[in-house]
TrEMBL record, chain B:
Membrane topology: Multi-pass membrane protein
Record carries keyword Mitochondrion: no
Assigned GO CC terms: plasma membrane
Top-rank taxon: Bacteria
Protein name: Branched-chain amino acid ABC transporter permease
Swiss-Prot/TrEMBL GO biological process terms: amino acid transport
Length: 414, 296, 415
């Protein structure tokens, strides 16, 4: 493989050539490379950049591993919420950002993951006057099946998704959130109804990842549930991001972007449109399921109320703010949206426009919502590539994919 | 039998109110091809204005102010946010309206706080008895006003130059622009009309038998979203049909919840969405929507 | 592959190096002969409130929080506890369980007690953590399913007791007799279920036939439920829904010509309803079962509280949330004082001090409360109040607190 390819070199005769369709604004004569420019990455990996990359990755991994030894519970919990949100957001971004299928129903698939895990892993119990079912499976198996179940749910919905485009699809997925929540509220024996139910802690090789009266002490630091969950959480996020990059920058990503930008052309070029559309729905649901399981574990309780419209909009906000179509952007957006309210609550007294409890004015949680709503609008107006677009161009290969055109699939061909 | 008649009349009355809201979705979609997710916040804004003003200036002027205020807010959103994005795709524009809705709803909900604000309407809790069927006067007013408003709108849509311009723009924006249609005015006008209809709907959502406006009132607008989709989001007739269909479905689901276990526990709330999914499966463009061609 | 291996190795090294972290375990200690625990320093005792200032119970949250601030301000002005100031840390969760759980993680390590937690679902979600953290917690929720924990103190009567008393009241004063039908409209979830447990018990004991109607928190129009009650021919209606839903129900039943008495849970009325068109209906035949002394009652302590509150928060509504906030803060305040006297300000010490109160009474009216056991409600006697526009706080006493014979024979199943 050559170290570099000429800028105009189109080595891939496949659907990637449709990059031009995705980028009508590109200067004439210069074909915009497909997302992730097939040639760029191997080149840097083999060259000197590879070592820099490895060193940076190493430092990052070390930093992530050190966090539980220093950070207090508040930060660990906030970080774990952000990790779960990032996994979910990356999945949604594959669906909405890359493949252009507007989904407002991500919360539903999170709920499927969370509740399937709870149901499979929990022992039957009596709580608040009624019996709760549970199968008492080993937690890791329950988690794996829960993630798969979310994927299956996505697969079952994809025939409907396949018939709809753009905003109509958004509304149909919105319906999924309302229907799903209704079922969760009614299925008291499994979900605990309005009160929700406790989430059984994860157990890996006999080690319970939960708070205990006598916490194991690692290097002088007592390890509670949050400390222990931190490591699998970070590993899952890394795995999720790595896989998503593979999808985005690989053949499926190019096919999906082409479908997003011009479905008929994609079909004409031999992309199996229906299969890809269904496939990305399943993959995105699997991500949501994983996020749901992790969230439930951090939360220690699953409540149907939580998996509603507000959560679905949160996820949409994450990928819009982070930058549609980019894996790193989705993660950044997830961190922003999930940390903002908590930071404003904790440090609100230092911020002038945030009112303290009992005072008139914007409360921290309202301020957080206004800020993220405004960020949502501002990003679309002024920063079409999201937070990701703020990074230098070389660091953001996905930005060339003109992420902003994501919601486009609903347009009639013009 | 009287029970059924009562349910049907009440269902039609609330359906007419849903139709007002659904019409707002349709008008905006026809002129700009955007699904206006900020519609609930326009509705809340209109209702809020009526609620705070009626004590000082009387109900009818307050209603006028509410309708005008919501219309102005709609036009403002179009002017400040959407116009800047004219070049963006319709998908992006629809997503932007979600952000607008979040900001507006939080602010209005904060102002409403935990209060239940009465709108000071003249109908109060009076009811009419017709052959054993009890109907609230406010419901009859809702039916009448909604039908009148929709008729006026449809006539304007058909005969005024604004209506013609709007239909032209919906048909083919580029050609319409070339023919001298000012697209900016058309779409700002559409947003304003949608806002006005939403304010009117807010009034009838908050009068008897509901005690008043509160922060949850905007959820009703979300119920009208399936109404618009069921009818076909580019069809004004469809909005009317969808609204009535949803109103009646909801009333029946509530009315017969004691007879069927399935209908209990808030089934009425999700019935519109269930109906919508079924319709979308059979006709992806809704009952009256234009079928899109050229799908691979 | 090699980079991966190096990465893992480096991560392990980093983790080992982190061992020198100073992340300390929650400290206990002793100062001035008093044992102290988390939330207690040399000069402050921190107590925390998980409240709702932006969600559906914002009105309740605001009143409770302001009243608690008032109490602790007064306590501090009088010298505090154990030479320490008591500081109230407030976190708003907007009735969102996730936010509440997150907020709890933040404040729990630095709190000595929780004088306010709004919401049954939230208290339930935190229950096991509250118990393992040994935090004295006073929820602003009255479902009997919250009973049964040494660390969670419900104040006054529970929803089921209220409904038992309500049925007894309807039979005694409104002439209901065996064989009559009685309606009960209730929310889904703890509140409604708890109330329903009481009404089912009382209806069976009194030979009444209960007509149940369950509604969701988001329902606004009660026409269908009213129609069902009319069809069933109920002689009275028990109400365990939100104030707004109660107003809709009262309006619709009146419009339908169904003139029956209502007996409501304390959470099914708010002063704000007296500004709506249904006010006359409510003033006519609406009775609220509550353990909170109404501000119009002739009790000196309550009159003083009304004056102090209006001075501190002019123009703010004076309702049962204020009473509830002030008394719950006082429960924690008294527990702290006792714990100080016993020279044990650890969390366990505070709970032990609190649980020693067998007949708690701070001069704010109502029946004395027994906090020494936690599997039964602290009291079985509540006021019956009637909405009244002219009365301070919007309600006046219809019947002084009394324990009905029916309530005496009722034992709520602990959750």
């Amino acid at each position: 493989m050559p170290d570099s390819i000429p800028p105009s070199g189109r080595r891939d005769p496949g659907p990637a050539g449709a990059g031009t369709l995705a980028d009508p604004a590109a200067p004439a004569g210069v074909a915009s490379p497909p997302p992730g420019g097939d040639g760029a990455r191997p080149a840097s990996r083999a060259g000197r950049g590879g070592w820099a990359r490895a060193a940076a990755g190493l430092a990052a991994a070390a930093a992530v591993c050190a966090v539980p030894f220093y950070a207090e519970a508040f930060w660990l919990q906030a970080g774990l919420f952000a990790m779960a949100a990032a996994i979910g957001a990356i999945g949604l971004n594959l669906l909405t950002g890359v493949a252009g299928q507007l989904s407002m129903g991500h919360a539903f698939f999170l709920a499927v993951g969370a509740y399937t895990y709870v149901w499979l892993a929990a022992e039957p119990e009596r709580a608040a006057g009624h019996t709760l079912h549970g199968l008492g499976w080993p937690p890791p198996l329950a988690a794996a099946v829960a993630v798969a179940a979310a994927g299956i749910a996505g697969g079952l919905f994809s025939p409907i998704a396949g018939r709809l485009r753009g905003a109509s699809l958004g509304i149909a997925t919105l319906a999924l959130v309302f229907l799903g929540q209704h079922v969760l509220f009614r299925a008291e024996a499994v979900t605990g109804g309005v009160n929700g139910r406790a989430v059984p802690p994860m157990e890996i090789l006999g080690l319970r990842l939960a708070d205990s009266p006598e916490p194991p002490v690692v290097l002088g630091v007592p390890f509670g549930g949050l400390e222990m969950l931190w490591f699998p959480g970070a590993a899952l996020l890394a795995l999720a991001a790595w896989f998503a990059r593979g999808v985005v920058y690989g053949r499926p990503g190019r096919a999906l972007t082409t479908i997003r930008d011009h479905e008929i052309a994609a079909g004409a070029m031999g992309v199996p449109v229906a299969r890809y559309r269904a496939g990305v729905f399943v993959v995105s649901s699997v991500y949501a399921g994983l996020a749901g399981v992790l969230l439930a574990l951090v939360f220690q309780r699953a409540v149907p109320e939580y998996f509603g419209l507000a959560l679905a909009l949160d996820y949409l906000a994450m990928i819009v703010i982070g930058g549609l179509g980019s894996v790193g952007g989705a993660a950044a957006g997830a961190v922003f949206v999930s940390l903002l309210p908590q930071l404003l609550t904790r440090y609100g007294d230092a911020i002038p426009f945030v009112a303290q409890p009992g005072e008139e004015g914007l409360s921290p949680s309202e301020a957080a919502r206004v800020l993220y709503g405004a960020a949502f609008v501002a990003v679309l107006l002024y920063l079409p590539r999201g937070l990701r677009g703020l990074l230098p161009r070389c660091a953001a290969p996905a930005s060339r994919a003109r992420a902003v055109r994501a919601g486009d699939a609903g347009d009639p061909p013009r | 039998m009287t029970a059924l008649a009562e349910l049907l009349v009440n269902g039609l009355a609330s359906g007419a109110v849903y139709a007002l809201v659904a019409l707002g979705f349709v008008i905006v979609h026809r002129s700009t091809e955007v699904i206006n997710f900020a519609h609930p916040s326009l509705l809340l804004a209109g209702g809020y204005l009526v609620a705070v003003l009626h004590d000082d200036i009387g109900f009818w002027p307050a209603l006028g102010a509410g309708v005008a205020g919501a219309a102005a807010l709609g036009a403002l959103v179009e002017f400040v946010v959407l116009r800047r994005l004219r070049s963006g795709s319709h998908g992006t524009l629809s997503i932007v309206t979600i952000g607008v809705d979040i900001v507006l709803t939080v602010e209005i909900a904060r102002r409403i706080g935990a209060e239940v604000l009465p709108l000071g309407d003249p109908w109060g809790d009076r009811v009419v008895q017709v052959g054993g069927v009890t109907i609230a006067q406010a419901r009859i007013a809702a039916l009448g006003v909604a039908v009148a408003a929709i008729t006026v709108f449809l006539l304007a849509f058909k005969y005024t130059s604004w209506g013609v311009a709007m239909r032209a723009a919906a048909e083919d924006r580029a050609t319409a622009a070339l023919m001298g249609v000012r697209l900016g005015r058309v779409s700002a006008g559409a947003w304003a009309v949608a806002g006005a209809l939403a304010a009117l709907a807010a009034l009838f959502l908050c009068v008897f038998p509901t005690p008043g406006l509160d922060r949850a009132t905007s959820f009703a607008a979300l119920k009208a979203l399936p109404a618009a989709v069921i009818g076909g989001v580019d069809s004004t007739t469809g909005a009317l049909a969808g609204g009535l269909l949803i109103g009646v479905t909801e009333a029946l689901a509530v009315g017969y919840q004691d007879e069927a276990a399935l209908l209990r526990g808030g089934f009425a709330d999700i019935a519109p969405y269930l109906l919508m999914i079924v319709v979308l499966l059979i006709r992806p463009t809704g009952l009256f929507g234009t079928r899109e061609l050229a799908r691979a | 592959m090699r980079t991966v291996r190096i990465g893992i190795a480096a991560a392990v090294v980093a983790c080992l190096a982190a061992g020198c972290s100073g992340k300390a375990t929650g400290g206990g200690g002793e100062s001035g002969g008093v044992k102290t625990g988390p939330g207690v320093t040399k000069d402050t005792i921190t107590v925390s409130a998980l409240t709702d200032l932006t969600g559906p119970y914002a009105a309740l949250g605001k009143g409770v929080t302001q009243a608690q601030k008032l109490y602790f301000d007064q306590l501090n002005a009088a010298g505090g506890v154990c030479g320490r100031k008591v500081e109230l840390l407030v976190r708003d969760h907007g009735y969102d369980v996730q936010k509440a759980v997150a907020a709890y993680s933040e404040i729990a390590p630095r709190s000595a007690a929780l004088p306010q937690v709004i919401g049954s679902p939230i208290t339930n979600a935190l229950r096991s953590r509250l118990e393992s953290d040994k935090l004295l917690t006073i929820p602003q929720a009255w479902a009997h399913t919250l009973l049964g924990s040494r660390y969670i103190q419900l104040t006054g009567t529970t929803y089921d007791i209220d409904m038992v008393n309500a049925v007894a009241f309807l039979v005694k004063e409104k002439g209901l007799k065996a064989g009559d039908r009685i309606g009960h409209i209730h929310l889904e979830g703890d509140y409604g279920q708890s109330a329903l447990a009481g009404s089912r018990f009382a209806a069976e004991k009194s030979g009444l036939k209960l007509v149940e109607q369950q509604v969701k928190a988001t329902d606004a129009d009660m026409t269908a439920q009213a129609a069902a009650f009319r069809k069933a021919g109920v002689k009275a209606i028990l109400v365990s829904v939100s104030p707004k839903q109660a107003a809709s129900l009262a309006g619709v039943t009146a419009a339908m010509g169904l003139k029956v008495p209502f007996a409501a849970s304390n959470s099914a009325f708010a002063q704000q309803l007296l500004a709506t068109p249904v006010a006359p209906v409510l003033e006519r035949e609406y009775y609220v079962m509550t353990a909170a002394t109404p501000f119009s009652a002739d009790v000196p302590g309550v009159k003083k509280l009304a004056g102090d509150y209006q001075k501190a928060f002019p123009g703010q509504p004076l309702d049962s949330s204020v009473f509830s906030g002030y008394t719950t803060a006082a429960i924690v305040g008294e527990a702290l004082k006792k714990a100080c006297a016993a020279k044990d300000l650890t969390r366990e010490g505070i709970v032990t001090a609190h649980r020693s109160a067998k007949a708690f009474d701070i001069g704010l009216g109502g029946a004395p409360q027994d906090y020494s056991q936690w599997t039964r409600p602290a009291s079985r006697a509540g006021y019956i109040v009637k909405p009244d526009k002219a009365a301070l706080g919007g309600t006046r006493v219809h019947q002084e607190p009394a324990e009905s014979d029916l309530a005496k024979s009722y034992n709520p199943p602990a959750g």
